[in-house]
Amino acid sequence: PDLAIPGSSKLDVIEKDDAKKMLEDFEPKGRLHSIWTLNTPYIVGICNCDTQECQPIRCDLSWGTTSCFKSEYFATTDYDKCSGCLECRSLCSFGAIKYSPHYEKCTVDLIKCTGCGICRSVCPEDAISLRVRTEHPVAKNLWKF
């Protein structure tokens, strides 16, 4: 279909598989995926930026505003699989990855984790997974940054 917004130029249309590939390519670069609805039933925008670029996330982290919420998931580490390579820690924009020099392993701080899943994309051991936030007794009440 020919998509256009009144008063603007025509929009590019991409196929579902191409969009998924683009999102997968963004993750190892630390890009966060968010969908903006502005409290409407429609998608207003899809953003793929990092915390240095994203004004709403920066405001939430710096001033405690509530323009963004954590995702419905949180990350967790399989301690037996973790090699302690620190790849996940290098991409976490929220400081949620903790490293134990004694054990040479990484863990995820449940309180700081936003559930973006970016850490999973660079783990060479596949040691990080996402869990459903509402199924954890502590995480189910942690929705704000």
Structure explained in plain terms:
The protein is of the alpha+beta class. It has three helices and six strands.
- Helix and strand composition category: alpha+beta
Work out the strand percent: 15-25%
Mean pLDDT level: 84
Q: What can be said about the biggest beta sheet? A: 2 strands, antiparallel
The largest sheet has its strands arranged as 1-2
How would you classify the quaternary structure?
single chain
Given as residue ranges, the uncertain stretches (5+ residues, pLDDT < 50) are none
Order of helices and strands: HEEHEHEEE
Q: What percent of the residues sit in helical stretches (DSSP H or I)?
A: 10-25%
Query: Total number of helical segments?
Result: 3
Give the helices and strands, then pairings.
Blueprint: H1 16-26, E1 32-36, E2 45-49, H2 55-63, E3 73-77, H3 87-91, E4 97-100, E5 105-108, E6 128-132
Antiparallel strand pairs: 1-2, 3-6, 4-5
Short structural summary:
It is built from three helices and six strands; from the N terminus they run H-E-E-H-E-H-E-E-E. It is of the alpha+beta class and 145 residues long. It starts with 15 loop residues before the first helix and ends in a 13-residue tail after the last strand.
